[in-house]
Backbone:
């Protein structure tokens, strides 16, 4: 593997898919400014980060945005 693996956490999956990031997740129904969840939602924020980190172990699929419900 070359470079630094990356994963995008997006609240705008349509736009993000067009940019073709190597890996991307979309926490369904999260709003702009709260891509990890609302302030004070520590457990949800941890879950989103864990999901993003688990996505790093998968092969890159540019343009695919994985939708996840929290």
Residues:
């Amino acid at each position: 593997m070359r470079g630094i693996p990356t994963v995008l956490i997006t609240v705008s999956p349509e736009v993000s898919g067009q940019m073709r990031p190597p890996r991307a997740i979309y926490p369904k129904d999260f709003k702009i400014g709260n891509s990890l969840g609302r302030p004070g939602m520590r457990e949800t924020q941890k879950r989103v980060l864990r999901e993003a980190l688990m996505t790093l172990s998968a092969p890159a699929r540019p343009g695919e945005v994985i939708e996840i419900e929290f």
Notes: Residues 8-68 form one domain. The chain has two helices and three strands.
